Amino acid sequence: MMAESKMNEFIKVLSSDAPVPGGGGASGYAAAIGMALGNMVASLTTGKKKYAEYQEEIEEILVKGDRIAQELMAFMDKDAEAFEPLSKAYGLPKNTEEEIAERTRIMEQALKEASEAPLALMEKIMEALAVILRLSEIGSRIAISDAGVGAQMCKAALNGASLNVFINTKLMKNRELAEQMNARADEMLAEGNQMADEAYDKVVKAIRG
Questions:
Q1: What letter would DSSP give residue 174?
Q2: What CA–CA distance (Å, rounded) separates 97 from 44?
Q3: Nearest to 196 by CA among 160, 141, 147, 138
Q4: What is the DSSP letter of 67?
Q5: pLDDT tens for residues 105-155?
């Protein structure tokens, strides 16, 4: 379970020629760190008189943010699970027409599943970005820079996850489904990068004036 491995172990395997973890697992990890930074801002805001008007919302964010961070960590393994069938499909024989047909069928299904995992990760990162954006507005000014860092981590993860979508959809035979997946990824890229940039800009304005 990659989500339960130590950081140095994860980095060591990530650096190797092992098929997993790869960009998807790294994106899940980066996004989880980003959300954790948002949670830290919320933790340093809760209970403070200066932010009493947001106390109820902050308490909700703490619960939601912790859930999102755990779910993002889980994607480290989900990405590996989704890639395994594709990795095996590449090794299938293709010496006869029957073998080629069977390999093509299995490959198509594997490519679909390998595209769905990073798409789902992007969906979860969008949730994290929405929370961090709100924290950039109501979070403690003492820790607000960490909301900006969290936004940047999630932005990188979002963009990274999209590449795992596009590299798989490019090879799909079902072009209609592939383009639907690409369109959804593009939609989240546009909205997510906008949220991340807005959060970052709010943080910069708060700490630099």
A1: -
A2: 63
A3: 147
A4: H
A5: 999 999 999 999 999 999 999 999 999 999 999 999 999 999 999 999 999
Which residues, 6 or more positions from 43, have their beta carbon under 8 angstroms from its beta carbon?
62
Decide: 177 and 183 in contact? Cβ < 8 Å: no
Report the C-alpha gap between 117 and 139 in whole angstroms: 32
In eight-state DSSP terms, residue 91 is T
Q: How many helices (H) and strands (E) does the chain have?
A: 6, 0
The residue extents of the domains of the chain are: 20-208
Query: 28 is written with which tokens?
Result: 């899940």
What is the 3-state secondary structure of 2-54?
HHHCCHHHHHHHHHCCCCCCCHHHHHHHHHHHHHHHHHHHHHCCCCCHHHHHH
Q: Is 47 left (phi over 0), alpha (psi -120 to 50) or beta?
A: left
**How is residue 61 written in tokens?**
């964010």
Domain 20-208, what fold? Four Helix Bundle (Hemerythrin (Met), subunit A) (1.20.120)
> Which tokens sit at 18?
């092992």
| Residue length of the chain | 209
- What's the rounded Cα separation, in Å, for the pair 45 and 33? 19
Its pTM stands at 0.91
